[in-house]
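Our collaborator T.R. sent over the components below with a one-line note: 'Predict the complex.' Nothing else. No constraints on interfaces, no templates requested, no preferences about which chain binds where. So this is a plain run: every listed entity goes in together, and whatever single assembly comes back becomes the starting point for the next discussion.
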Amino acid sequence: DGGITQSPKYLFRKEGQNVTLSCEQNLNHDAMYWYRQDPGQGLRLIYYSQIVNDFQKGDIAEGYSVSREKKESFPLTVTSAQKNPTAFYLCASSIDRDRGPSGTEAFFGQGTRLTVV
Amino acid sequence: KQEVTQIPAALSVPEGENLVLNCSFTDSAIYNLQWFRQDPGKGLTSLLLIQSSQREQTSGRLNASLDKSSGRSTLYIAASQPGDSATYLCAVRLAGFQKLVFGTGTRLLVSP
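Returned assembly:
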């Protein structure tokens, strides 16, 4: 089955610790995204990548880092610099918009819930 | 700055009712608009995608409309069922940008 897989489903972070959230897609999509969801707020964009080895900051990139070494994978690292990391993290992908409007439909994974302990 | 608003924030209806969820956006220069469904603790499921040149899209009991000039979209759900209970999110993709801007969602409860 084609789709987006996020792991782990639940993650606990200690103070001062870096943690990495995994996102893998087998949809052959060019673009991948990371969003953060907090109660009462809309989804906010952390980082996005349109092509391998390239990525751009979103609205709330501080305290996060990403890499895009493979088309299928877009891991997100939550660093100790992120002071309030407890949230639900969602990964998404879409075909690059330059291939036509029908390709820009975004698909999401099932999310990772990160909690600071 | 593009802002997306969804009204109402929560809606409770009895099973079988037809209902309308609203989404408004401040900047009409959008590439497309997408409606999603989110169940508690889960990811987002894409329901409908409307391109900026389209007026509506239909999928089963769902119909989404788009009026770019007025900055509005509606999601119509016919003959609602308890299984429709979820949070519904709309998101606009800005023209010239890759990112989606989301509304805060409408939490729908359909009672048997």
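Summary for T.R.: Residues 24 and 73 of chain A are 5 Å apart (CA to CA).
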